[in-house]
Every structure is written in C-alpha cells, then in structure tokens.
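Memo to structure team: turn this sequence into structure tokens by end of day. - J.P.
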Amino acid sequence: MKINQIFTNGMVLQANKPIKLYGTGSGTVTAQIADNIVKGKFTGDKWLLTLPELTYGGPYDLYIDLNGEKLTFSDVYVGEVILLAGQSNIAMSLGGSSYPKSDYEENPLVRCFNAKHYEGQGHFHPEDGWVKCTIDNAQHFSAIGYHLATQMSKEKGITVGIIACYMGSSVIESWLPAEIADDERFYLPKEEKYDSPYVHGPHNISGTLYGVRQQSIVPYSIGNVVWYQGESNTGKGEWKIYTDLLEALIKRWREDFMDENLPFAVVQIADWDERNDDAWHGIQKSQEKIVERTHNVKVIKSADVCETFDIHPPTKINLSKRIYEAIK
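Reply from structure team:
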C-alpha cells in the first residue's frame, strides 16, 4: 500500500472539512491525528480513509499504519488550503513579477505543494513536499499565491497552503476529461479557435493536464479554487462555448474533490492593448456569466488593477488583494 505524494511532513490540511487520506493498494489502514483515530479495510486498487474535521491549529503529528507499515508525518497544520489553477498569469512567479525583492518575507506558515509536473512545469516538484516560504525561495512561488497566502496568514493568524496546479498557455479543454472536452456540444471549427504556436502542443490535447496534474492530487480537501485562465481560448468563436466549458469544469472538479459546494474564484483575464477585439472581450464576458450557471462562484475583475501593455501584467499584488477579499 502507498499513500499519495501530497501527504508529507509540513503538510497543510483544510480546516473545518473532513480530512481525506488516500493512496493505492488494498489492505487495512489506521490513521490518527490529535484525538481522532479511524480504521478501514479496503480491497481494489485504491483506498480512501476519512478523518473528522479539525479547526485551525497545529503543529500535529499524523500517524498512519498501512498494513503494518507505520508512517509518521510531523509539523502538520490545519489551516486554509487554496488550489491555484489555470495558465501563465497565475503561474507567474514572484521573481518574474514587479514586486521588489527587498520586500520578500519569510513565513513558515505559508507553504506550497506542486502537483505532478507535465514537461517540468514549475520550480518545485512533488518530491519536495510542502515547501515553506523563505526569503530565498519566495521568488519561485506563484506571485498571486505568495501575496494571497501571505495576506491571509497574517490577517487570520493561520497556516495557508497553496497547491500549484497550472501550466502556461494551457487551454481549458486540457483541464477537463477528454470525453467531456471533446463532446459535440463544445465543437468549434479550427478557424474559430485561437491560433498560436504556444497552444499547439501536446499539453493542450483534451484531458492531458486534467489527467496528469489535477488527478494527481484529488480528492484532497481544499478550501477554495482560484481559476485564472482564458487567454489561450480567445479565438473568434471560443467565447460562445467558454461559459459552458467552465461550468462543466467546475461541476467535474467538485465531483473529483468530493465537495459539491467547493468555492471557485474565477479571475477574469485582464485587458491587453494588442487584443482589443470582440473575441478577447467575449471571453471576459463569458467568465462573468458563470455566476448565473452555478453556485458558490465569485468572479474577480482584473482589468482595472492590471497593466495593459503585456499579456502578462507584472503587478500581481493588487489583484491578489482583490482575490483575498473575495474568498476570505
């Protein structure tokens, strides 16, 4: 029996939600954290054991017995877990943003875990476990993740865990199972899709990033998903189906994380001087419409707090503050 890679020393567990432990193999699993002890017997290829929810706190030790193999995870905190998903604007590192290095802060209560890589995306690796933020490594954190987690940790006095699950230039279809993304209701002729060498890669085959990155961490208990994607779906006809695709993604991800009310913060793509056209603004409007389709979703406007001279606005702190206000 094996436990999923996301369970390591220093992990952050979501407060006030059931704690789901899981892995592969069959047999008997016993787990304990604080005064909670749960035991289960499993047959088949996968196992899932659920511990009762805990309030904010730590550090704890998490004890697990997998068919007689005893594991102990230390420095475990119960706090807020935020999943960052999408493409390059949420992936942009703090070091790649305009935030001055002199303002970087060390905070051991801000931690990051990187979902399984596809083509080496990201500085940290799953094997690194939950990485604590230091002045030296802060540059490799997502800029939005760093600002968001730092503000939340300071204001609430809690540990905040960021799960990085994104990839630059990715299309939304890659973050959905292929059988959904390729459904006929989402069909568009090639000439109506965004044409760029950045999107013509194997990472954007329907279902690829869903299968490699997202599936590597489910069904971890999380507090919020921050979804920032859309630039790679700005072909002239893609706005017609983007809201439908986003609705399908939210529905499926909630099923995968076993949380029918999982909150989503959808960040609108920013304005860009080179794309002041109907297709670009159509995606922005399509993102706005998601609140009419499903519950527990908030849309965060970025256009008025981001630069317009670059498809990657370098100042992320103001947008991060706005996201924090939406999800806190």
